């Protein structure tokens, strides 16, 4: 078999890099659980009719076909009608899960979900065909008080802050009520069109957007300028409220939005720092039309070209079954979008390629059972340990450990009187000390592989 | 939208049941890492030509098609030729990963992999279309010493033993060299045929198998009886060796197999107990033809009808790239096959439906920031905590905690002089004590949801 080549858009990690992903996922899960979010997993597939409800993503769905159906006995039309496809996000499956199990869930239902999703789009930087997302959502039955908007923002900010090997980040928050109320208040007739055009400010020059606001959204020059001025407003505190009021537009929905957005910004204050910022940024709109209040995007400092790594918002009707509607608020972290570039660019890796903190050296093949017993003693104390694969010369066994990044090698010494003593060698410093395998453990920092900056890791 | 119904063959867990799966996976991962197995994940898809190399499973592969390819511009034939399908096990992807990254891996390479796999087969008890497997393998370059066979057996036995809420289990071990050598030694000409027929002993009566050994495998009556006698031999120690020798068949491969099998059984001895058994069972053959030495199956005590929950063995050529071959030995645990029936039959569930150990009660909506601050103090000490969704009457807030299984409710009491004190109520016992939120934590056993027998959980 020829050497296989990677599939474009399907990133995979080498063992040392997977260490980074494991630690990121563990830190996220720990923070989410500390806040009472329970974990669920949903199946990878959903019925096509569910996946195709959102027009925009329909072209990206991977359709599933059983091979044994044969090439001709079922057309793609039938697959579309009754078939299944791979989920392209975790929101559609979650909405279905909530409806399917509503009678067995307690509301408000806080859940986190960390799974792969698939999109059959053309791979490009930061865009993959298979990638991991980590979502948190809080869903209510019929009602979901606004304070949960503040809660999900705080939880995700705390979770991202826990990834202390990351550069800083900025959570950008806006509110649909605010911008929709503003556009209504200044007399715009096609609110959605205005929002779509303002959303293009990061791609088109301001003058061009202004032109389109007039030609396509039917605004006059003064209205267009006010919309553009609104989009320039940003602040790390509630001062944006006065800036908006200074524009002289009034509307009840606008007022609601201002109050909500100020509450999110103030509520996240205790979680901010020099590197962790939460800003009211009034140009953020989010393309998807199901958001109805708070909206979130997140930029990684120094890696702004990745786009938003973490997005979400409030949706007043995640799902509905006729009897009840289920409003929700959530944020989704693009784990692969965040990590794959950092790993590929060599920013992050794991400190070693195996979990083992200790290699038990082997004098000869006959002493393997004794070495296995020593290893078991260490494992019983929580020390990841492996036994040398072969009874090579000790220098070779040390190089074996070095190549894997294993920090300690354990040697047994049999004295002339037949008693055995054990020594642990820190192969980084060369220091060698007598130890009792029944009680000795390496320093806590050496127990598990650490996430390190590759440049700092020799 | 109408209430969705479950998809047959795609099991999903409710939050309390997912607790069971989370703890199982965490325990397995911990054990694997203690033994130096590093984690990897491979993409869900593989090229169809790789997936179809094993004839037996070809009918079960789910083929992937991008929706945007349109119904007619690419036939299934092309998908088969150049397309992709979902992996049906973790061995095929692992073999591909090893070949693709051989230059960047250290051998022997120990890895564990816990992922979903997909098979488009008809769902039935213990058979799913989507299910989770946990695989460990050790792979060498060109050579892999036999002692690794003992190692993987020990690691999996220790991992399964760590799931202390499971009933007992029996790891059944056999060796292909032993049975092939035996059949050769007694003069059988079609070794594979004999092995296939002996493998049917759990489905067909002995007489029928005997008949087929004579009619289909060309054995004489004495040879057929010897084969059947071999298959009845089983022992929890190395005494099976004498039982085999007593049959009077001699062959060099047989001797090798006897030595290896005895070594696995003896090597696992320290890990056995009243409920954890490792037996040499000479009727175990494993259908798949890539095994070349040790083979494993595992039965769960009291749930034998599930079939083998954990299977594997030695394969002398997991992969080959022309320059090197990569021999390996591994075992695969069917996590879903094990857990889905235990959860559905009501044997196991989680002790609560949320991670929260504490609910901070709310006097009124104005005190939410104070309650949030208390909750953050608890979380900083590792206590999963949520704040009441609404300032209901305290009785209602306690019932809110009860429904979720949250063991403690925290109340703030404001004295007449304005000072605030805090009390923690264990809602199971009703006991209420004064606490300092900056230092108080619930008992360790209450910090996380536990796996419990449903019958014992009121």
TrEMBL record, chains A, B:
One Gene Ontology CC term in the entry: cytoplasm
Enzyme class per UniProt: ligase
Listed Basic and acidic residues bias regions: 420-429
Region Disordered: start-end pairs: 420-458
Main location: cytoplasm
Residues involved in L-histidine binding: 89-91, 119, 133, 137, 286, 290-291
UniProt KW keywords: Aminoacyl-tRNA synthetase, ATP-binding, Cytoplasm, Ligase, Nucleotide-binding, Protein biosynthesis
InterPro entries reported for this sequence: aa-tRNA-synth_II, aa-tRNA-synth_II/BPL/LPL, Anticodon-bd, Anticodon-bd_dom_sf, His-tRNA-ligase, HisRS-like_core, HisRS/HisZ
Cellular compartments annotated: Cytoplasm
Catalytic activity: tRNA(His) + L-histidine + ATP = L-histidyl-tRNA(His) + AMP + diphosphate + H(+)
Domain Aminoacyl-transfer RNA synthetases class-II family profile: 108-355
GO biological process, one term: histidyl-tRNA aminoacylation
A Pfam family this chain is assigned to: HGTP_anticodon
Record-given protein name: Histidine--tRNA ligase
One Gene Ontology term of the molecular function aspect: histidine-tRNA ligase activity
EC numbers: 6.1.1.21
Oligomer status and interactors: Homodimer.
PANTHER family: HISTIDINE--TRNA LIGASE (PTHR11476:SF7), HISTIDYL-TRNA SYNTHETASE (PTHR11476)
